[in-house]
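[Help] Beginner question about ligand-bound structures

Sorry if this is basic. My supervisor gave me a protein sequence and a SMILES string for flavin-adenine dinucleotide and asked me to "get the holo structure". I don't really know what that means in practice or what format the answer should be in. Inputs are pasted below exactly as I got them.
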Amino acid sequence: MMHWQVVVVGAGPVGGRIATELAKRKISVLLLEEHNEIGRPFQCAGLVNPPAMERVNLEESILTTVDGAHIHSPSGIMIPVGEDGVPRTHVVCRKRFDQGVVRQALEAGAELFLESKPLDAYLDDGLMKLVVDKNGEEVNVECDLLIGADGAHSWTRRHFKMGRPKEMMVGFQADVTGLKGPDNWLEMYTGEEVAPGFFAWVIPCGDGNHRIGVWSTPDCLEGRSVEGLYETLIHHPQWKERFSGMKEISKYCGPVPCGLIRRPFKDRVMVIGDAAGMAKPTTGGGIGPGFSQVDSIIDNLYLAIINNKLSQRNLAKVCKPYSSLKRDQDKARALRNLLITTPSDDELNSHFEMFSRPEILDLINSIGEIEHPVPLGMTLLRRVPEFRMLALKAGFRLLFA
Ligand SMILES: Cc1cc2nc3c(=O)[nH]c(=O)nc-3n(C[C@H](O)[C@H](O)[C@H](O)COP(=O)(O)OP(=O)(O)OC[C@H]3O[C@@H](n4cnc5c(N)ncnc54)[C@H](O)[C@@H]3O)c2cc1C
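Answer (accepted):
No worries, everyone starts somewhere. Holo just means with the ligand present. The predicted complex, written as structure tokens, is below.
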């Protein structure tokens, strides 16, 4: 029986990050990754904002840096948010990024089993015992703490019956060449036909390549597929000129779990990142929020591990900072619903007319932050008279819950 203090299931960015922080503190860590290489396959637009990038310093994975977004209303009103020369977010090669994060964990002392996944896990004699499929062979592993960082459909979360994230969005993306446009501005498209309740994106990723994607929920899709929405966007009479002449290189589809589960821990087990439902309801981004989740608990988690205090009650104390992350996530979802998800196309067009007023645009550009959209949303609701009425109608007080 091989023993580690911590076994992390899933060598994605969040698994790699928590393994690094634990290994740096001299905790023995084993990472299990079901694929035979890190960072493949991936389903991601590759946006990593500057604070998340600063935590890992993987600038070599950056393909381009984005200074702003051109956001289009259903009828074609365009709002430019951002300023040339002021970086808002980076676009990374996910393979290089994930490999860099996991390399940092290995350099800090963690071990990695590729082509390995748990078949069973159970508590026995004060330890978590695992049966692992390692390159087709069954091996027994034991640890003090099991961490599931195994993504949206987490085996760990399902095995230990920890519930489901509140929302599970579906994202679709195509990598294309041949689109024109500046390399430092991304585009967003809204409207019932192309992205019901959410938005579609066009993201430059250097060397004339772009990622075109769309995300939505099964409820908003009403039987349509996200790939169908993408086809509608690129052939839409209003937008088809923009997409003419491009060539598709690859297409993929994936889940985006938004809504931190109520108890992402049990005795000697916890889940983190997408496995816990950490992605942002406003953008679908999960890397920055997953890194913040790691930062919020790492010091107390380290103490809990070295003192072998890893019961559900002890882990609930370690995970206390999650309540403020969850509150922010709930507020962001409420604001998103109010401003983007529930309005009809006509209402969205009138929101965009308000957004395009110079004084509102100044406000958006001065307070707007991709990683923290709540302060901007709140300010808009308070300061723009038309939004104040909307907020009251939708139960503004809920936002302060
Ligand atoms: C279309 C689309 C676009 C997106 N764009 C962005 C974006 O621009 N920016 C952003 O921040 N986020 C984006 N996301 C979300 C982002 O991809 C995730 O939030 C992020 O990858 C979560 O990291 P993670 O480490 O928690 O999980 P994952 O990246 O899913 O990593 C989980 C790892 O666990 C492994 N694994 C799974 N099950 C097992 C098992 N049983 N045993 C062993 N290993 C296992 C997987 O192979 C994987 O390596 C997007 C998602 C989609 C679908």
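A couple of things worth pointing out: Residues 397-401 have pLDDT under 50 and may be disordered. Residues 9-15, 32-35, 43-47, 117, 149-151, 155, 171, 173, 213, 254, 256, 273-274, 279, 284-288, 290 surround flavin-adenine dinucleotide (CB under 6 Å). Feel free to follow up in the thread.
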